[in-house]
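From the methods appendix. Each design record in this collection lists the tokenized structure first, followed by the designed amino acid sequence. Records were kept in a plain field format so they could be parsed without special tools. The example shown here is representative of the layout used throughout.

RECORD:
FOLD TOKENS (1205 positions):
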């Protein structure tokens, strides 16, 4: 059978308000949480709360999102009355969910929160802990669940039932039709089946299922034989009658009541058996199970049993009307869940997305008004705050508990009057009592919130609840949430690129504070050990994989470029870069997913003790996050690149470090982007690429710094001065990016940005000509039909009137109007005008705007060509910009590598007016000359395909200021770097202009003069050496000094590579050898710096294009039409659930691999101890023999058996 029947890309969110003073904050908190949770999928959403006292009534509202509507706005509008501050009480629960459907259509029945049986009136027995008495009340009983993940199977009496079988069982056991066929509905049904405490009706049903039917075998084959509702009611009446008499007659403790109830019901065994058509043994089992369920099967017990016997992945929030005013249960297994507590706010937040739980940071409840009507804020010292809220100083602003999704965990949260001794968590009688933890106080310390956590799969059982919390307020490692609901979040991200890139570099220059540097040092030390081991091995030690790099989509594309550049620097380092989905499909499945077309399977690489680098901006992508847990069974050397320290993958890595006793944060890199809701990825890609650049430079310098005698460590051939130049080029990239992104702000806008924006808006006019033509056609038809004349007929009649003095047809020939040939000639022409109305209106628009008029009148297609990581990232970015655009004004986007397959894959699609945007490498660098020439050839080949003398509209973007003859436009990026030696040689001879083509440069660099001595082209050069102290001091200070001096030294040179003039070996090199020496550095410059600048330039261009198209619709339709280009239809900014790989058995595989790793470690440990013991025994025997007098010394020789013990 196939594991994993459905996968829901969903998200839980919600809060529990404890302090009424914060009622006015509830709506804004839920809105922030909802908008962040929508990043996980937003096809539908729902929210439930409970109103009333005693057994409150659940109020649920659900909405299904349209293609261009805003899900958050729709839901909050539906829930406006319940979110009004005056309508909110305390305590009050708000339980919400967003859904991305993959197993069914996005319809209202499948929308969470789910409830199987509608609210109904039942007799409920409540237990007063103070008096010990039970009292009955008739009230509303209903239950709601929100579930992120998938339910595949459920085990009952050692029989595993499929989802379809569970659905049929619940229909017959709950005696209620299934509201929806989604898997999460079964979770709601199972909660109703398992939550029985205090209700005899539910307890008897539980006893029937878990007692009477315990030996019935497979229940799914005979569902028609299960009890009907009438039988259940009849048996329940017997239990209600006996219990009512018992609580009136006796004043007994709970344990005694339980025993007495069982005794009385056993007296009625024949009646029970008869009423339920059961054997006496089945009836006895029913009685024992039902009575136990009445006392024990509360919300926590139901949740734990559900999680224990259900197979799949779960992020669960469980609530019922019986418990909504005093407790809540949250579960996690295979799906992340977090709970954030805010003492000063008087609330706690929970959700699948840990970032959503930061919505309360900086938010406090409003204090009661003073006599003047103004808000009173009381200044409290740390000790007073600690006493008031019951937390440690610093935690009053908020702290978060992240649940263990690998082992599986349930958390019970209970609130009410503070007690002297923390209450015991309700656990089954066979378990040891577990005191709950007081998390915080509220209501001026009179009330308290308690928590108890239960790990289902073992591990970390000895760690206290509060020891696992993370302080949120005033924590430098926790970035604040960005402003939500902006008009242009994509534009904001692009404008912040220079700031974030500068922050990354500045952080790298702070050795005493930078945890990125600490992580880089750990990575350096690990890789250095591997390289030395390889270099020193006489047999040429080989590994299947030294460094494994993985990620998904844009993160993977950035990682692939980093792997290429790292291999360029260290050729002997075996680097494997592969999709996290492929890794998970092979290593994380009971039935591995074949990777058809890829040379990878579960036996391809031995990953034991390899170094792993996981690249994931969000830190919550399902595949990458689960690979981080999966790889723990193979290696402890797991690094991650993510948006901030406080991400799910960061926590997974830290958990491994903490369990290994390793230093905090030494394996985590952060790009400081934080949460970015916009789906078109721009800033996150640029920042990740820049961070990987910093890592590469650090590794290159560190290898030479720590191992100065190993000139070719890892197969490297670079000189430390080349690392200096690479760092200087890195600094110039920051300057160039600032100029590309800067909108001015009082300073002149750089011409490159002006050209990029202008080109984007010009292409937007191409895209908008469809709706503009449609509007012109509409007005033309309205006017001509309304007036009764077309322009041609009116002009013709005016001419006739001027000639004859009579208005109308027939006047020219003095005949009947119907016989006038002019009328029919004009009519035929007008018919042709109407038939081709869209065509000629489009031509008119093009002529008025000064655009080529002979392009095809059709939708536009855009082809992006550049190095793979740039082209693929831009394709994803641009296609998402137009994901919600109207079909009449959109663009189809594709990408290709002009150095490889662009011509083969795409030139057959060339049509008049197609758009081609290509990034050109800087061919002025000798190593990149052939690359630029190839790119130019690809552009020319595409542009040479013509029809009617017209071809596509191509533009190029790059640093070399040379325009191709067949391209429509060429945009030149800012160029602030020093010249390469190849540029210096040609410009120095006066034979090269700033705009030379790559083909000309290739010819010039092939001239025989290049064999002359390099210094002959640069007379009088005395390349200054790096200060000696750079290679001697401590690593942190020396690298900081290195980075500071590198920029200054390089820009004091006349050209890059001038230092070779004073090098003991290179000063005698020819010009060609100098250029060849710079080849590797130029390739790294292209891969790390120049490609990044082109990427940012294209972002500006395509954003300007998308923004103009987006803004046109509200203006043209008077606000009736419009869309948000920062999102797609269903929103999936973060792929948080198994897709395309099934997630049902990933957790089991993770635990299996971890268990196998522990077993292997134990075997090695035992073997090592045995060897040590045998060695000690051998040494003791040798000493004993030596101390024994003997005339025959040969007897002291050790036999081979002794040596082998």
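DESIGN:
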């Amino acid at each position: 059978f196939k594991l994993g029947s459905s996968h829901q890309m969903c998200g839980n969110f919600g809060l529990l308000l404890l302090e009424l003073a914060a009622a006015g904050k509830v709506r804004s908190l839920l809105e922030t949480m909802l908008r962040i949770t929508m990043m996980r999928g937003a096809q539908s959403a729902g929210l439930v709360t409970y109103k009333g006292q005693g057994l409150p009534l659940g109020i649920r509202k659900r909405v299904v999102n349209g293609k261009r509507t805003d899900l958050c706005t729709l839901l909050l509008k539906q829930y406006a009355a319940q979110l009004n501050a005056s309508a909110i009480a305390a305590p009050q629960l708000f339980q919400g969910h967003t859904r991305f459907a993959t197993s069914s259509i996005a319809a209202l029945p499948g929308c969470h929160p789910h409830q199987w049986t509608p609210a109904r009136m039942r007799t409920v027995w409540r237990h007063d802990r103070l008096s010990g008495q039970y009292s009955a009340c008739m009230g509303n009983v209903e239950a709601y669940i929100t579930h992120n993940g998938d339910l595949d199977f459920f085990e009952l009496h050692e029989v595993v039932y499929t989802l379809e079988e569970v659905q049929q069982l619940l229909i017959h056991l709950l005696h209620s039709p299934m509201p929806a066929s989604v898997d999460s509905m079964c979770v709601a049904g199972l909660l109703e089946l398992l939550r029985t405490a205090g209700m005899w009706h539910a307890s008897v049903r539980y006893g029937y299922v878990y007692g009477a039917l315990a030996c019935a075998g497979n229940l799914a084959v005979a569902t028609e034989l299960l009890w009907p509702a009438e039988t259940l009611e009849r048996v329940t009446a017997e239990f209600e009658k006996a219990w009512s008499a018992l609580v009136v007659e006796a004043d007994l403790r709970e344990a005694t009541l339980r025993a007495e109830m069982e005794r009385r019901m056993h007296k009625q065994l024949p009646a029970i058996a008869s009423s339920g058509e059961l054997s006496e043994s089945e009836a006895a089992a029913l009685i024992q199970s039902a009575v136990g369920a009445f006392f024990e099967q509360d919300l926590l017990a139901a949740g734990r049993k559900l999680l224990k016997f259900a197979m799949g992945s779960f992020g669960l929030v469980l609530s019922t009307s019986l418990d909504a005013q005093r407790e809540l249960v949250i579960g996690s297994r295979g799906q992340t869940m977090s709970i954030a507590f805010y003492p000063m706010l008087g609330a706690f937040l929970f959700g699948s997305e840990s970032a959503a739980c930061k919505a309360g940071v900086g938010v406090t409840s409003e204090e009661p008004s003073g006599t003047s009507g103004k808000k009173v804020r009381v200044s409290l010292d740390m000790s007073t705050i600690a006493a008031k809220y019951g937390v440690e100083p610093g935690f009053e602003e908020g702290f978060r508990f992240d649940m263990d999704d690998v082992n599986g965990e349930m958390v019970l949260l209970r609130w009410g009057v503070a007690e002297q001794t923390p209450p015991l968590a309700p656990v089954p009688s066979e378990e040891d009592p577990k005191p709950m933890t007081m998390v915080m106080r509220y209501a001026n310390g009179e009330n308290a919130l308690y928590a108890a956590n239960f790990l289902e799969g073992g591990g970390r059982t000895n760690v206290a609840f509060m020891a696992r919390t993370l302080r949120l307020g005033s924590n430098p490692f926790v970035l604040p949430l960005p402003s939500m609901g902006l008009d242009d979040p994509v534009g904001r991200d692009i404008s912040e690129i220079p700031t974030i890139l500068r922050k990354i570099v500045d952080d790298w220059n702070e050795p005493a504070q930078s945890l990125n540097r600490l992580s880089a040092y750990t990575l350096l030390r690990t890789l250095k050990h591997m390289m030395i081991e390889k270099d020193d091995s006489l047999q040429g030690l080989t590994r299947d994989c030294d460094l494994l790099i993985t990620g998904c989509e844009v993160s993977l594309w950035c990682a692939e470029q980093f792997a290429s550049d790292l291999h360029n620097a260290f050729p002997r380092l075996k680097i494997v870069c592969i999709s996290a989905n492929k890794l998970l499909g092979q290593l994380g499945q009971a039935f591995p997913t074949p990777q058809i077309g890829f040379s990878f399977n579960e036996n391809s690489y031995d990953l034991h003790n390899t170094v792993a680098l996981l690249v994931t901006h969000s830190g919550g992508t399902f595949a990458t996050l689960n690979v981080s847990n999966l790889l723990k069974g193979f290696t402890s050397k797991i690094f991650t690149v993510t948006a901030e320290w406080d991400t799910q993958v960061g926590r997974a890595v830290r958990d491994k470090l903490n369990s290994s006793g390793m230093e905090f944060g030494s394996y985590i890199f952060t790009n400081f982007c934080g949460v970015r809701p916009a789906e078109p990825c721009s800033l996150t890609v640029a920042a990740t690429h820049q961070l990987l650049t910093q890592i590469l430079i650090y590794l290159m310098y560190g290898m030479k710094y720590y191992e100065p005698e190993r000139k070719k460590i890892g197969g490297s051939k670079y000189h430390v001065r080349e690392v200096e130049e690479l760092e200087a080029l890195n600094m110039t990239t920051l300057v160039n990016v600032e100029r590309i992104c800067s909108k001015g702000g009082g300073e002149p806008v750089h011409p490159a940005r002006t050209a990029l924006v202008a080109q984007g808006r010009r292409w937007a006019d191409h895209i908008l000509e469809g709706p503009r033509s449609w509007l012109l056609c509409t007005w033309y038809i309205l006017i001509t039909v309304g007036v009764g004349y077309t322009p041609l007929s009116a002009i013709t009649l005016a001419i006739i009137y001027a000639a004859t003095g009579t208005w109308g047809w027939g006047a020219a020939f003095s005949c009947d109007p119907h016989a006038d040939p002019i009328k029919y000639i004009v009519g035929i022409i007008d018919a042709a005008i109407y038939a081709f109305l869209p065509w000629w209106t489009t031509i008119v628009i093009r002529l008025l705007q000064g655009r080529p008029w002979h392009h095809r009148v059709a939708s536009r297609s855009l082809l992006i060509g550049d190095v793979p990581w740039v082209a693929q990232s831009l394709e994803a970015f641009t296609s998402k910009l137009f994901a919600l655009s109207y079909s009449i004004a959109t663009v189809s986007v594709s990408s290709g590598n002009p150095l490889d397959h662009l011509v083969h894959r795409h030139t057959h699609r060339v049509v008049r007016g197609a758009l081609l945007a290509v990034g050109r490498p800087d061919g002025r660098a000798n190593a990149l000359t052939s690359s630029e020439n190839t790119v130019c050839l690809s552009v020319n080949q595409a542009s040479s395909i013509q029809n009617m003398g017209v071809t596509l509209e191509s533009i190029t973007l790059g640093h070399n200021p040379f325009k191709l003859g067949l391209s429509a436009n060429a945009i030149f990026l800012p160029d602030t770097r020093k010249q390469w030696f190849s540029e210096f040689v040609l410009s120095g001879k006066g034979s090269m202009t700033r705009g030379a083509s790559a083909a000309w440069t290739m010819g010039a660099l092939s001239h025989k003069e290049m064999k002359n001595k390099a210094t002959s082209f640069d007379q009088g050069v005395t390349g200054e050496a790096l200060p000696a102290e750079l290679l001697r001091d401590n690593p942190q200070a020396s690298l900081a000094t290195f980075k500071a001096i590198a920029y200054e030294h390089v820009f004091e040179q006349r050209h890059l590579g001038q230092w070779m003039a004073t090098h003991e070996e290179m000063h005698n090199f020819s010009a060609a050898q100098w250029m060849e020496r710079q080849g590797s550095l130029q390739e790294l410059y292209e891969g790390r710096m120049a490609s990044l600048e082109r990427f940012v330039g294209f972002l500006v261009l395509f954003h300007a294009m998308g923004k103009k198209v987006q803004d046109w619709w509200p203006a043209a339709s008077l606000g009736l039409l419009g869309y948000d280009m920062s999102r797609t239809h269903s929103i999936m900014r973060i792929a948080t659930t198994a897709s395309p790989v099934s997630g049902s058995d990933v957790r089991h595989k993770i635990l299996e691999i971890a268990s196998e790793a522990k077993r292997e470690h134990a075997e090695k440990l035992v073997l090592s101890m045995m060897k040590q013991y045998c060695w000690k025994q051998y040494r003791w025997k040798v000493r004993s023999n030596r101390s024994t007098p003997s005339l025959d010394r040969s007897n002291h020789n050790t036999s081979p058996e002794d040596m082998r013990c």
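APPENDIX NOTE: The longest strand covers residues 143-156.
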